[in-house]
Amino acid sequence: MLGDGILKGLVETARNFAGSYVSKERMTTVEYPEERLPLPEAARNFPFLVYDGDDWEKGLRCVACQICEKECPPKCIYIEKSKDKKPDYVGKPQIYPAKFDIDISVCMSCQICVEVCPFEAIKMDTEFELATDDRFGGLLLDRKQLSRSNEYYHQIHPTEASEVDARLAEEKAKVEAKAKAAAEAASAKAAAAPAAAPPATPAAKPPAPVEAKSAKAAEVAKAPAAATSPAAPKPLPGTGSDGTAPMSAEDKKAAETPAKPDEGEPKAKGEPKE
Amino acid sequence: MTDRLDQIFVLLKHWLLGYLPESWQTPVGVVISVVCIIGLYPALFAITTVLERKGVARIQNRLGPNRVGPYGILQPMADGIKSLTKEDIVPTSADAVVHFLAPVILVVTVFMGFAVLPMGRNMVLVDMDAGLLFYFAMGASTELSVFMAGWSSRNKYSLLGAMRAVAQMISYEVALLLSSVVIVMMTGSLSLVKIVEAQNHYSYGFPHWFIFTPWGLAAFIMYAVAGTAETNRSPFDLPEGESELVAGYHTEYSGFKFALFFLGEYVAMFSISALGSTLFLGGWMAPLSVLQVVPSWIWFFGKLFVSMCVFIWLRGTLPRLRQDQLMNFAWKFVLPMCLLNLFVAGLWRFMGDGWLRWLVCSAILILAYVSIGREGMRRQKFGPRSYRYAE
Predict the structure, then answer these.
(1) ipTM, 2 decimals?
(2) Which of B55, B61, B316 is facing A26, going by the closest CB pair?
(3) CB A161 within 8 A of CB A153
């Protein structure tokens, strides 16, 4: 009969009306500023710099290698290296970023900086409430604003952070073991020649490879060779040469860094020929 | 005591007028009543907007506005401030005078209808003999303002919206009038006060409202349908179909002029509901004789509130009609039913008391409802669409 559909519809809406007061599951609204849904673990927005310990400036993992700056597709990272050095998490002296700015108005959240960073120093944040009334200054974050503690990283990406921590601990253990072995070897040598201490300091880079090569020439030969070929001396080849053992990340890095200039050189050579 | 509470507004007005010289009393009395009406209905409009938004939200399992004030009840204040402070844009090619006059005329004519509506015992501004006629005359002139708005805007959406609105309002005004004529036939008066008085008796504690007769119920249903269409409410809100016409005839209105259109639409809803309850639901009368102790104006505004809720409920339920469905429904279903109802009312009048007239009148109406509903409203079968290209 005409109109029974209307009555059916009216009953349905009345049921919805009453039900919305009775059952909480019906209401899908999340009243955002007061309540919010938990972000998925893979959520990401803009990068931040990880630091260990309590002091953000001392614990910053970044060694200002500038890989992220070079890789960043929209070029939103700006890094200035420091003149002096400070010890990193394994205790090696490293240069650090005197200036590390990310313009989040340019950043496209591609995560490439995170993927290329060999030091696990830059990670993606989940913070999204970044609205500001200062269009330029407010969106240009300096290294202090960017730095977050490792605990914070654990909080926002627990699985990823523990993987990173495990990797770093493994590397540290490896380095310590190697250092111990080297120290033992050195002390054994020191009995003969008292020149064991210098290799540990980075100031004595040139003599270090000589010392290291004596132990395992075939392996390390590549790294110093690579380190010498690119004109720009990076901290990594340096660590490769003075650290007695190439670390896994540094290995990767050492493989990469020589590869790139190699690729670049033939091209540069090839072009004039053509 | 109950009498005094019932007449509290009337007594208050007389008490105020007592301080004035004799010759001033009539004009000042009229001004006081007019100011009350003009103040009251916009206030009700404000409450209804928030009620509607909350109600429709709950029907859709949402929360509705809840930011301004506790439970969002101050939302209309924020809306009012917003529309007052918004820039008032008049298109350069628009007819500025007509463009300005359209919302004013809408609000004025809509408020004029309240002049003849009794809002309680002895609470009517003008007890006009031709009250119903006056009301419909005023209701018809809202079409003028709608068309003025649409045409003066010089915008095709406005014009199309206005054309739709006028076509719809004229079609349904026929049904609105014909369904009310039945009441005039039975009471023999066009005065709305007399129409309420005609329903003002009880048997076994139940009232003799016109809705409790077969012809009254049929007329009430037709009136409700036509009234919804007349006020451009969902499901008959085609003139404002935003998916087709941006906003219909008030596309080119902004700021306070838009607010006036909004106000006019809601006050028209109040006035149609008030007339409906006056004609069919006994106006300010109590629904049971024992409830007569409650003041009459509470019953009037209670009925108004209930019909507002039904409007909101319908809006939350029904999808918008198509233009051809709208017209088919008006001319092929509502109009024949109204005409038949005139005949049934005459039959009722001359069949005398007894159960026979109940049976006959109900049978005729139900039969007509089913058959017209089935045959007249049958979905038309269209073949596959064929195209002819120009050669």
Answers:
(1) 0.80
(2) B61
(3) yes
Average pLDDT over residues B94-118: 89
The answer to whether residues A191 and A235 belong to one domain is yes
- Chain A residues closer than 8 Å to B318 by CB: 6, 9
Query: Is the predicted pLDDT of residue B153 greater than 70, yes or no?
Result: yes
Question: In the structure encoding, which two tokens stand for residue B2, read together?
Answer: 């109950």
With respect to residue A217, please indicate whether it lies within any of the assigned structural domains: yes
Rg (CA), chain B: 23
- The first and second tokens of residue B105, run together, are 């005329």
Residue B144 domain-assigned (yes or no): yes
Domain that holds residue B204: 87-376
Q: What pLDDT, in 10s, does the model give residues A32-50?
A: 888 888 888 888 889 998 8
- A31 CA: distance to closest CA in chain B (Å): 9
Decide if B57 is inside a domain: no
Query: Which residues from chain A sit within 8 angstroms of residue B373, using beta carbons?
Result: 1-3
Nearest CA-CA distance, residue A6 and chain B, Å? 7
Contacts of B320 in chain A (CB under 8 A): none
- Chain A residues whose beta carbon lies within 8 Å of the beta carbon of residue B60: 16
Question: The whole model's pTM is what?
Answer: 0.72
Burial class (CB in 10 A: 0-12, 13-18, 19+), B339: middle
Q: Would you state the pLDDT for residue A89?
A: 67
Report yes or no: B333 at the A interface, CB cutoff 8 Å.
yes
Question: Is the CB of B61 less than 8 angstroms away from the CB of A2?
Answer: no
Q: Which residues of A touch B59 (CB under 8 A)?
A: 13, 16-17, 20
Tell me, yes or no, if B313 comes closer than 8 A to chain A by beta carbon.
Answer: yes
Answer yes or no: is pLDDT of A205 > 70.
Answer: no
CA distances from B374 to B320, B340, B361, B364 (A): 21, 16, 20, 15
Which residue type is seen at B279?
A: L
Q: Is residue A25 part of a domain?
A: no
In a domain, A132, yes or no: yes
In B22-155, where does DSSP find H-type helix? 22-59, 75-85, 96-112, 131-152
Evaluate whether A118 touches A67 at the Cβ level (below 8 Å). yes
Q: For residue A100, what are the domain limits?
A: 47-156
Find the residue in A nearest to B64 (Cα): A29
